[in-house]
Amino acid sequence: MTDLPLFEQGRHLLSVAQFDRPTLARFFGLADAVGPIAQRQAVCTVLDGAMLGSLFFEPSTRTRLSFESAFLRLGGEVTTTTGFTFSSMAKGESIADTARVVSGYSDVLVVRHPDEGSVAQFAAASTVPVVNAGDGAGEHPSQALLDVYTMEKELGARGKTVDGCHIAILGDLKYGRTVHSLIKLLSLYEHLTVTLFSPPSLELPAAVAGYAVERGHRVAEADTVVDAVRGADVVYATRVQRERMTEELAQANARGDLLNRAMLREAGNEEVVIMHPLPRDSRSDSFDLSTDVDALPGLAIFKQTDNGLNVRMAIFLTALGVSTEAVRLTTKQRPWKATLRD
Ligand code: NCD
Prior knowledge:
Rossmann fold, 2 domains, 4-stranded parallel β-sheet, 13 helices
């Protein structure tokens, strides 16, 4: 068995609520330990013979590819199905039947589905661990884990801690599942100040704000982005989740830059750590993070995506009960050149 007793409830990862502060610290220690494999200084075969079933019934680029890359880089193999059209759900098969069938082929399943609660239904019928890669507007636990992991690194490099920090969270706070999981996971820390800015009709659900407030954090809404980011240590921007809404989109009337360099300058905060779960919506009628912040020193959006590999490797090792000793024994230096910098 693993030396990291996480994911009680049968080793599924469905919600960030499955972590407490000590298990989170141990989990991040494991994410650090697989760093050389994630950064491709070393190759590992610890999951030799294991199969991942990757089931994405909603669009995805980085979540699917980073889960699959993480599994492959640990020496496992991957089978994938994407979209309803190419699966038997298009023929009316239930979640329970699909879960039972595919768990007969795989050792762990990663599932993304448009309905809140659907991945938990999947887990209930599965005979192998299930990882929630996003259930509608519900949760996205692996994203929150990599977000908080990145925050620890970025704030640590500035001599700060997540405890006591001020985070501004901007954008579609109603449908953005990454924000829901992030606020819940951050609530494990001490004395946070969370300032929120969202377009009208896309405010944070009261239950999510209440979750943080009950745990002793200050949560306040700001009238403008500039007010929200003034004095913040981290700003976390999100896109409008157009695919999940109809009339709210018209009410939100959200166009242009959600956050840009001029706003940060006006707030006196051009050094802030800038985060976003991505994708950044670059269409002409979008309301999202401007690319004019990309040259700022605090830009961390691609550090998040890179850290996603470590975190997703740690999820698989935990779900499959692999010890750090087994990882060590199956890891060796790679003989080939990986990046252009090699
Ligand atoms: C997010 C998601 O799918 O919830 N993307 C991701 O996994 N990084 C955010 C989004 O789609 O806006």
